[in-house]
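Assemble and predict.
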Amino acid sequence: MTNQYNDLKNSDVILVMGGNPAENHPVSMKWIMKAKEQRGAKLVVIDPRFTRTAAKADLYVPIRSGTDIVFLGGLIKYIIDNNLYFKDYVLHYTDAPFLVDPNFKLPEDLDGEFSGYDPKKRAYDKSTWKFQLDENGVPKKDMTLKDPNCVFQLLKKHFTRYTIDTVSNVTGAPKDKIEEAFKILASTGKPDRTATVCYAMGWTQHTVGSQIIRTFSIVQLLLGNIGMAGGGVNALRGESNVQGSTDQGLLFHILTGYNPTPVASDVDLKTYIEKYTPKTKEPKSVNWLANRPKYIVSYLKAIYGDKATKENDFCYSYLPKRDDTQNCSWLMLFDQMYQGNIKGFFAWGQNPACSGANSNKVRKALSKLEWLVCVNLWDNETSSFWKGPGMDPKNIKTEVFFLPAASSVEKEGSVTNSGRIAQWRYKAVQPYGKSMPDAEIINELYFRVKKLYEKEKGAFPEPILNLTWEYGEKDKTGKIKHVDTKLIAKEMNGYFTKDVNEHPVDKKSYKKGQQVPTFVFLLDDGSTACGNWVYSGSFTDAGNMMARRGKEDPTGLGLFPNWAWSWPVNRRIVYNRASVDPQGNPWDPSRAVIKWDAVNKKWVGDVPDGPAPPLALEGGKLPFIMKPLGVGAIFGPGLADGPFPTHYEPLECPFQENPLYKKHRINPTTKLFGTEEDLFVFCDTRYPYIASTYRVTEHWQTGLMTRHTDWLLELQPQIFVEIGTELAKEKGIKSGDKVIVSSVRGKLWAIAIVTDRIKPLKVMGMTIHQVGLPWHYGWRWPKDGSGGDSANLLTPTVGDANTLTPETKTFMVDIQKT
Amino acid sequence: MELTRRNFLKISSGALLLSSLGINLEPAKAYAAELRTKGAKETTTVCPYCSVGCSIIVSVKDGKVINTEGDPDSPINEGALCPKGASIYQMANNPYRVTEPLYRAPGATEWKKISWEEALNKIARLVKKTRDKYFITKNEKGQVVNRVDAIAHVGSAALDNEECYILQKLLRSWGLVYIEHQARI
C-alpha cells in the first residue's frame, strides 16, 4: 500500500477491483464506510461477481474475468478525451511531457506487439523503449504535450481503440455502467478530490497482472491521486505478514529491503553495485537508490560481521548466484521439482499441495523428492501428500518430517501489515505440546548444520561457518539457549560496527555498537551493519518503535505516527511530496499530508519523502524519489511485456483470438510450460465456462488454520461453486446439488450455489457464463473428506509475464451434475 | 443478578441514559469487567490472518488463553474483528494441532513420532548430504556461483519479521536460490 487502511476514510472515490475487502479484509470496510458516511464518498465495485463489497457499493459493474486492462484503458481514454486529467500534476510530476525514441512502435502500429519483439525468445529487445536525451543527458520534453512522440500522445494513441463500445463488447460490462464508473473516477482529477483503489489477487493472478496494476497507476498519475490523503494505489495483501516476509527477502529475486539477488555475471561487489545502482543526470532528482552501495555493504556486514572486510569484498562471494537467465520463482520451482531436479524441500508455514496452481502437478512433484520438511501447526495436504488421493505410499520414496511450530500467541516478534506498519506482538502462553517457535527451529537447524561442517568440512563451508548469529545466551556447546527476537530486530535496524567520528550526515560522533538512527546514517565502508535497510529506524537506541501505542493524530488524517512504526522511516503515505504543488502548498489544504513551512524552512505533517525543499524553491527536488528521473512513470520500459499496458486474453478463454490485436491472443512474453501436466485449452466446447477462485471470510488461504477451527468450519463446511441462475437452469442444476467441476487438468466435486450474484455477460455477441469456487479446502481435513479438495486442482500452470504469479483468476471449466 | 446477554444490553442502554444524568456507573462497569477476565494477565497480539493488522487482547489464566477480543486502543481496528479474528481463541486452544515431531520413512504408510533431537539431526544430515552432493561452485561459463539448486524452500508469510530475516539468512548461507513464499502466488 502507498497509503494506510485508516486513510481510506479520506477518499472521495474508492474503486474496489480485483479485491473484495468486505469478505477478505473485513475490518478495512470500517474505513471505507467512514468515507461513505462522513465524506459522501462513492464506492465503485467492478467484479465478475456481485460480492459482499458490491452489496455496499454505490455502483457495481460486472466484468468478464481477465479484461481489466480493457476497462481501465477505456478509462484512460475517457480522461484524456474529456480533458479531465490534473494538468499541473501531470506536467510537473510525471513523464507525460518526455519525448520517446522515434523508432519506438506501439501495438497499434505492429498489431499487438511493441517494437523489438522476438517470437523465438518470447521476449523484447528494449533498445527503442527509451527517451530522447538532450545535450545534458536529460530527457527532452514538450510541455505543451503535443509532440506525437511525447509520452502523453503515445498513451493517447495506444488507447485510441478502447472506446466505451469496445470496452463493453470485450468486457461484457453494460455501456451505461461503464460510463457512470468512468465519470465517478475521473471526477477526482482535481486538487480537492481524490480516488483510491483497493485491489488484491483479483489483479495479480493474471498473465497480465502487473500491467493491470500499472494501468490504474497511470490513471492515478493522470488524476493526480498519488501521494494524496485518500489516494494512492493500495494492494490489500493476503496474509498478516506477507508484506514483512517480502521485505525480508524470502523470494528468489530479492535480498532484504528489495536489494536484487546477485546473478552469475555480477562477478564481484563492484559489478553488482555498478549494475544495480541507478544513475541520473536530472539535477532535481533525489534518485534515492543511488544509496544502494550503503545498503548492500551494510547487509553483508550484518550477516558476515567482522569476517566481511573491504579487502575480501565484504564476503560478497558467499552469496549464492543464480545463472543470469535462471528464474527460480514458484512455478519454475515446482517445474524443476516435477522434473526431479530438486531433491530436498522445505515447506515452512505453507501448504503448496493446495495453494499451488495446478495442484495435481505440485502433488506429483512432491513425490519425486528425496526428503521433505514441513513446519506447521497442523498436519496437512503437503506433509501427508504420500497418502493423498491417487497416491500409493509404498511406491513413494520421500522421507518426510513434520515439525510442529508454535502459534502467534506463543512467541514474540513483529508483523507488518499492508500499510507497512510493523507492529510488535507478545507471547501470551507457552508453546502447545512440544511445539517450538519458528525462530527456535531455525536456530536448531543453523546450529546442527554448522556443527556438521565444522566437524566434517564439505562443500564451501565458509558462508555457514562465518554467518553471524548472536541472538542470545549460549550453552556449553555454543548453541543459543533461547532466541531473543529483539536482538534480531536490532540487527535488522542496523548498528555501528566501529566508532564514527563526525558522521558525514550530521557531523556527530557515533560509538561502535550504537544503533543507527535511520538508514540515512548507513555507510558503504563497512562501519555500519544493517540486516534490512527499510527497517532501519524500527529499533533504535530509543527502543522498540514497533511496540509503540501512541494515539496522537497531529495531521487529523488518521495517520497516527506514534502507533507502532511504518517503513520507510515511519512515513505513513509514500510519495507524499506529490501531495503539494511545486511551492510546497498542499494541493488540498483540507487534507494536507505535508506542507512546507517557509519561515522555518522545513516540512510539517507526515515524514516527507526526503527533507529537500519543494520543487520550485532553491535546492528543490522532484517528488518521486525512488525513480531515477524523479517523476511518476507513465512510460514503463522496465516491464517485460511493454511500456504501456495492453490487453491480451487469459491463457484459457472462450475465444479463438484477441478481439483487439489479432496477432497475439495471449501475452506474447508469458512463459509457457511444457510438461505433460501443463495442459491448457481455449475456445474449446468441452470447457465452455470461465472460472475464478476466491476466498470467503470464514476461511483463510488453503484453510489449514480455519478448517481446524470448529467455529469457522461450521460456518463454511465444504467447497461450493457459485453458478448463475441462467446457467443452472440450462444445466438443470439446483442449489445444494453435488456437481463435478472439471478443467483439462483436473476435477473435483462441489456443492452448487445457484445465485443471481453472477449474471451471464454478452461478449462479442456471445453469451458468456462465469462461475467461481473458493480454494480453502483439502482432502486431509475434515477427516471424513466432507470438505472436498482444493480448487487449485483446476488452475493452470502459467503466470504473469513479469512476476510469474499464477493465473488462477481465469481458466475454463465444465460443470456436470453427478 | 445473572448477567445474561439480554441483561447486559439493558445495563448498556441504561448506562447511556444514566451517564447523561451524571450517575456514577463505575460499579456496573467493574462488575461487567469481572466476568471473564478477572485475575487474567492481558497481552496484545496482532491477528495472524489477513493483512489489516488488527490488534487483539489475549487474556491468560493459569497458563491458558481464556479469552481473546478486539483491542479498542488500536487505531487500525478500534476493537473490531472479523469472524476469523474473533476465533483466534480456538487457534490458541486447538486439539487438532500436532504436539510433537513426526517422521515418515520412505515407503511407509503411517507417520511415526520422533524426538526433536532425532528429527533435527536427521534433517541437518540430509541438508549437508544434499548440499555437498549438488553444490555448484562454477557454472558452465566458469562464473563463480556458489549455490545449490537441489534444495528448495517455500514459506513463510506466517512467520514474524525477525524469523523471516534469520530464515533467509540461513537459507542463503546454505547456498539456496530456490526461495519462494506466499507473496508470489
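Confidence is low (pLDDT under 50) at residues 1-19 of chain B.
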